[in-house]
Design brief:
The protein is an alpha/beta fold. 47% of the residues lie in helices and 14% in strands. It has 11 helices and 9 strands. A 5-stranded mixed sheet has the order 6-5-7-9-8, sandwiched between helices. The longest helix is centred in the last third of the chain and has 16 residues. The protein is globular and about 45 Å long.
């Protein structure tokens, strides 16, 4: 069995949720069958969204330090339960451990749910949406990615994410669902919760017949597959 590193702290609640879901979704029958895992959780990492929008790399030295620490600890794979941090995925990939890509895990999840060649919606931070992190990779595989309007991002989605980060999860849910309802009217087949804070508020797997893709769970499944004999038949 391979050793998994988790580069976390972005935010701390999403990292904790990743660890809980890793334990819950691993098909182990005893302690010894769970994946050896090391969590590097550093909430001091500069805000990823701000840096993407400003065009600077302030988080990068912190991310590199985390990956190198996990490499020294013997990790074969690294999962990063923060969507926006994957903006620097290509700059982290040559540091030793294989860095699993959260968007690739979502693509596999969509295929496993038979959601192919159709309209899907992407929710995430302003920088994730503006950078095209999901749209670029998923459009190549046949999905047409729709995103919230600028007004919805400014007035509902980004404020909801900020509420979740401050621990006000219940207050955020109605804001997120208002946007999802508007996107469903555009003939989508799935909504990707492309910020690891969003699944903390939206825990359902479907809504009005639409698949809700949890980016934490998809990354967890890819991590399990990478470390433990392809239990989910993910491509790692």
């Amino acid at each position: 069995m391979k050793r998994l590193g988790v580069l976390g702290g972005m935010g701390p609640a999403a990292s904790a949720e990743f660890m809980v879901r890793l334990t819950a979704l691993t098909p182990a029958t005893c302690d010894q069958e769970h994946i050896p895992t090391i969590l590097w959780s550093d909430p001091r990492i500069p805000d990823r969204s701000t840096s993407v929008r400003n065009g600077d790399d302030l988080p990068l030295p912190w991310l590199i330090k985390g990956v190198e620490g996990l490499r020294r600890a013997g990790c074969d794979y690294v999962a990063i339960p923060c969507n926006t941090a994957h903006f620097w995925h290509h700059k982290l990939s040559g540091l030793g451990p294989k860095i699993l890509h959260i968007v690739d895990s979502v693509a596999i999840e969509l295929k496993n749910k038979n959601v192919t060649d159709c309209n899907i919606a992407i929710l995430g931070t302003q920088s994730t949406i503006e950078s095209g992190l999901y749209q670029y990779r998923l459009n190549k595989f046949g999905w047409n990615c729709l995103t919230p309007s600028k007004e919805q991002m400014d007035d509902l989605i980004q404020p909801a994410i900020n509420l979740i980060k401050s621990g006000k999860i219940d207050e955020s849910k109605s804001m997120i669902m208002e946007v999802i309802d508007s996107l469903i009217a555009q003939n989508i087949k799935a909504v990707v919760l492309g910020c690891t804070e969003l699944p903390l508020a939206i825990r359902d797997e479907t809504y009005n017949g639409i698949a809700l893709i949890n980016s934490i769970d998809s990354l967890v499944r890819l991590s399990i597959d990478a470390c433990w004999e392809n239990k989910y038949n993910y491509t790692s």
